[in-house]
Amino acid sequence: MSDRYVGGLRVAAPEPSLHLSALARLIAVTFWGGEEESTLATVGDALRPGGSYRWPGSRIGITDDGRIATHAGLVDYRMRVGEHAQFRTAGLCAILTAEEFRRRGWMRQTMSDLLTNLPAAGYDVSLLFGIDDFYQQFDYRRAWPEHRFEMVMADLTPAPPVTLEFFEHEQPDEVVALANRHEQGQTGSVVREGGWFTKLVEDRGCLWRGTDGNVAGYILTRVNDEQLLVTGHAGHPDEILGVIHQLMQSHDRKQVRLGSIAPECELAKRLRRMNSKEVIQHQRAGGALLRLVNLRSCLLKLLPDLKERLRKSALSDWSGDICFDTDNEMVDLRITNGEVEVADGHLVTSHQVSGPGMAQLLVGTDDIDALMSEGILTAKHDSAQLARVLFPATHPSMPEPDHF
């Protein structure tokens, strides 16, 4: 077990044979408030070896008497960025300090040890869903706001009922395939390929088929005391709305909320043409938070998108070099006759984008002008014009069931 002592705490990668049971109980108590059998089973399943949770990449802090004081878990997945790129992402989850060990600075040591190992492990970026005003000390910055819609049943047009097939626990292969097609090109979405990202914990799914017998759409739902909650979807917007109306009738709910919806998806566009309330929740330093791990690998994976964006722009005949500098890493792009490549070494150029907001620029949290206004990026000479073309705002979003 690779570990080291920092400030009286032994920081190490957890081992399933030694720590699974104690870790599951600590997570259950911290985030669910108890140790009910069903909760322990859910947490234990999420931690099972061979799933999306990465034991070697996660970190725990262990006291001298062997108790787990801190935990920062790691989920390994691919996140879509733009039309073509897939960033290998270190999703951080179940970040906690046991109550009796808080206010000792031990989480800083635990997180620092985990983050130090991400570049060598091959990650491009890291993402987490966190509380306000804590994770900026680890260079995490806002990734995207949450969009949700709320409606009442009276504003939904009844549609002929369709035959629904319900599923729980695991998404059928046909649903996984449809989700991946539906979310292609949606920055922030997960490439679903098993493990964490095909399991359902609180949600129940239903699908419907077309005349050819293939799955035409699905929605994932929860039911609370007052509302039907829609947490994921794919399919034609009118069919989705018809199924929502059908489920609201069967559950006797007069209100529906669609959470964590991609703001530019077809369903969101359809809802804006109806009676609905759209809520956008912004958090300055909480919610979905992003950290850059490897600037070079990100730019390499973005090259197909960068070439397409440049080719379609008024700057398609621009040639030269542009430098991207995060203080920790400096990478240059060379642009020649519409071709874009990542330079092997540093080039001397007056066109430069620099600052701590680089991850937000790469994924399209905001465009270059907004990031410059915020004071987290600067651009010299032609670099602002180029960045507007190469790195537009992409309206990132991740469906709620994929949150970790």
Tell me what you see in this structure:
The protein has 404 residues and is of the alpha+beta class. It folds into three domains: 142 residues, Aminopeptidase (3-Layer(aba) Sandwich); 134 residues, 3-Layer(aba) Sandwich (Aminopeptidase), CATH 3.40.630.30; 97 residues, Nonspecific Lipid-transfer Protein, Chain A. It is built from eleven helices and 20 strands. Strands 1-2-3-4-5-6-15-7 form an eight-stranded mixed beta sheet. Strands 9-10-11-12-13-8-14 form a seven-stranded mixed beta sheet. A hairpin with a 2-residue loop joins strand 1 and strand 2. Helix 1 crosses helix 2. The radius of gyration is 23 Å and the shape is globular. 41% of the residues are buried. The model has no long low-confidence stretch (mean pLDDT 95).
CATH topology grouping of the largest domain: Aminopeptidase
Biggest sheet overview:
8 strands, mixed
Number of domains: 3
- Which class best fits the helix and strand makeup? alpha+beta
The total of beta strands comes to 20
Determine and state the CATH class of the largest domain.
Alpha Beta
Quickly count the helices: 11
In angstroms, what is the radius of gyration? 23 Å
Strand order of the largest sheet: 1-2-3-4-5-6-15-7
Helix coverage percent: 25-40%
> Any idea what the CATH architecture of the largest domain is?
3-Layer(aba) Sandwich
Shape: globular
- Average pLDDT, to the nearest integer? 95
Poorly predicted spans: none
In terms of DSSP E residues, the strand content is: 25-35%
What's the quaternary structure here?
single chain
Assigned CATH superfamily of the largest domain = Gcn5-related N-acetyltransferase (GNAT)
